[in-house]
Amino acid sequence: xxxxxxxxxxxxxxxxxxxxxxxxxxxxxxxxxxxxxxxxxxxxxxxxxxxxxxxxxxxxxxxxxxxxxxxxxxxxxxxxxxxxxxxxxxxxxxxxxxxxxxxxxxxxxxxxxxxxxxxxxxxxxxxxxxxxxxxxxxxxxx
Length: 142
Known about the structure:
It contains seven helices and no strands. The chain is flat. By secondary structure, the protein is mostly helical.
């Protein structure tokens, strides 16, 4: 179908599909690596990522570009507080398997434009925190 729309559109579609496949493969590789580590190592890595995310969310000045894409001080602080709470739960052993990624990415999807640029470190940090929480959740007993 894309070929019928023209070579440029078809080429763009193939490029996007290849990028998505490469990202999925990289994620599967990371998942396999994390799943092979001792649970305490995954726990420590998750705590470290959540800690960095809290620091980034609280320490990043919001420029016009970030604001245009939906970031605000209140939103960043709300996410920082939630990441801090989740870090405490992972640290003290009260994080529950069923929490998965704790919906952090959903918060961002609801507030931040999907058109945000690649340089949005806040967005990337939240997704990394969610990724690590999912990896940690998989390691917890059912």
